Amino acid sequence: MPEGKLQSARMLGIGLRASALSSLLDSLQRREIDGIFTNHIFSDRSIKVVETLSSPVFLCCKRRALAPSETKTTESAAAFLKANPIGLLLPGIDNKLRTECDEYLIRNRIQNTIIFESDIMAAVIRAATRGLGAGFFPLVYVIPEINNQTLITLGTFKPLWNHRITFAVSSAVKEEAWMTSVTEKFSSVKSALDQTLAKLSTF
């Protein structure tokens, strides 16, 4: 499981193992693991997608990293970044989320300095909670931090884009009880995501 998915998977109460996607796919085919969380799109018929979650992405930072007047804005996230020299915290270049971030930055001609990047998404989130800069986070990754207001969203409350997370198994796997449990957990996470999204406009 790529590191960027660990926080969401922990919310599901699942035993975890992190590794490169190619290694996980090999283990999946050998039935050494039951399933994988990933943001990659599968066209391989040997892989069966069990659940997919689409999470809105927001620009977030620690509240105390900004002046009080800057914590509420009706500007877009792009306009906010152009007007403020806050540094960017990004995933490593091999992460699909990084590709999405880069596309957003290029499309909006944003040139803020990248001050931290890591292949471990939890490290990027930790850098944000320590006030080192601002990052683009799928809301599902930072539900606790948003709910306790350790992190705040910047710009309007309209999501910048949606980031997809998939849980997949080998197509050779037949329906099993644990798969039903995963589906139920996904429903719980989706509910928590919707509740947090609804709260954003009230903060």
Assembly classification: single chain
Radius of gyration: 18 Å
Helix amount: 25-40%
| Number of strand elements | 7
Distance between the termini: 33 Å
Q: Structural class of the helices, strands and pairings? A: alpha/beta
Percent range for β-strand residues: 15-25%
The poorly predicted ranges are: 1-6
- Characterize the largest beta sheet: strand count, sense, and whether it forms a barrel: 7 strands, mixed
Order of helices and strands: HHEEHEHEHEHEEH
**CA-based shape:** globular
Number of helices: 7
Average pLDDT, rounded to a whole number, is 83
Task: Describe this entry's structure for a reader.
The protein has 203 residues and is of the alpha/beta class. Helix content is 35%, strand content 23%. Strands 1, 2, 3, 4, 5, 6 and 7 form a seven-stranded mixed β-sheet that branches. The protein is globular. The model is unreliable at 1-6 (pLDDT under 50).
Topology, please?
Layout: H1 6-11, H2 21-29, E1 36-38, E2 47-62, H3 77-83, E3 88-91, H4 96-107, E4 114-118, H5 121-129, E5 134-138, H6 143-147, E6 151-154, E7 161-170, H7 177-200
Parallel strand pairs: 3-4, 3-5
Antiparallel strand pairs: 1-7, 2-5, 2-6, 2-7
